[in-house]
């Protein structure tokens, strides 16, 4: 039987997953990556022995990740995971604090310190979040989304109650307000909309499945960081026989009998595109999800900063109003990751590395406006850095005089790696049915498929892996049908 040839364009986690699985099935797979390294947005940097991820900084759904490596016959390459407990520490503008634990009772105790009634709110919120997961989350992740009919069939298997629950969902903020009386815990719930680059005031309550996943399956650190996971995936696909071309920006066109891929000028039977699909689907004018601005910091000595910390701004609604009006937030929420708090291999003795991030608006994609936005970032990044340092040192004054910047990433850098307008997730899933308008895996011509955070099921390491698994399965089905 003729060996099918598959081109994978883009070497992010979704593309690597698809490439490896297709190669394992016996297809001749060639992967093209436009940059000098694999991983897409999941990059890492090492500066004088200090290692920091510049993209994702945590892992959920560890069984899905292990299962992917098992399918690739690569469990021997998989770095070990450490489950974090506590999961994240939250500081609010009024000086109050809250700690999220996997242990729900410990989380409820922390919430009760804000207001005793919030103990009950934690239990009721997580009970409803679990119900949302069963009613909508599980069927959404069970199979590629190819239309509401198939999705509703999967929902219906869970009973009429699941269908009714889905129809009643409002915004994530309103769900939080239903269960919590303090703005603190409403902010805590609302933060999970940013996992998809959205606003809690416009995103579906379905995103409550994210805190449920963190509670049910834990928040994990990969030893060596997410960059080590990418390295392991790269080794796995090469071992399976995938031909990898770095620094190669590939283009494809549909021809009789398949796809011609440049710059090689070779013909492939199928193409998996691991890049944001909005432009190729002529949807580039749609609103984009948030971008981000990241500082990579070196700290002299070890610090008391936890592994994951969120320093909230004082007016969450105003913050999102500003961001989605295309403005930087006046009082931004700051996320801090200190991986060496868990993993000493991430920093040499006597030093600490911090990943510090704020949300930022995506840049316009129109050529003239895009160039103007790039110039504004070149001159305006200093203001954002000052905001980040001010908030970081206010909460951790012991860091004063011990910190230096070793790197930064702005929306301009993300755009240079192919993210539309520097948007981290591309598609903006606002509205009750927002997640169902996400670009689908199956492309508009036979044999074309998409993988990555810009398509179904969404962003985050495990979901991007799942998109790669779906894309590989669909491509294999297509190739068998054409054999």
Could you walk me through the main structural features you see in this protein, from its secondary elements to its overall organization?
By secondary structure, the chain is α/β, with parallel strands linked by helices. The protein is 37% helix and 19% strand. The protein contains 14 helices and 19 strands. It has helices spanning 13-24, 62-71, 104-114, 118-142, 148-156, 160-167, 172-179, 183-190, 209-217, 226-239, 316-323, 367-395, 411-416, 461-482, and strands at 5-9, 28-32, 44-47, 50-53, 81-83, 88-91, 97-100, 220-222, 243-245, 251-255, 258-262, 266-268, 270-273, 291-300, 308-311, 334-337, 351-360, 403-409, 448-450. A seven-stranded mixed β-sheet has the order 7-6-15-16-17-14-18, with helices on both faces. Strands 9-2-1-13-19 form a five-stranded parallel β-sheet, covered by helices on one side. The protein has a three-stranded antiparallel β-sheet with strand order 10-11-12, with no helix packed on it. A hairpin with a 2-residue loop joins strand 10 and strand 11 (258-262). Helix 1 (13-24) packs parallel to helix 10, helix 2 (62-71) packs parallel to helix 14 and helix 4 packs across helix 5 (148-156). The protein is globular. The N and C termini lie close together (8 Å). The mean pLDDT is 94.
Helical percentage:
25-40%
Outline the biggest β-sheet: 7 strands, mixed
- What are the segments in which pLDDT stays under 50 over at least 5 consecutive residues? none
| Computed Rg | 22 Å
Query: What's the multimeric state?
Result: single chain
Q: Give me the side-by-side strand order of the main sheet.
A: 7-6-15-16-17-14-18
Shape: globular
Provide mean pLDDT, rounded.
94
Work out the number of β strands.
19
Strand fraction: 15-25%
Structural class: alpha/beta
Ends distance:
8 Å
Number of helices: 14
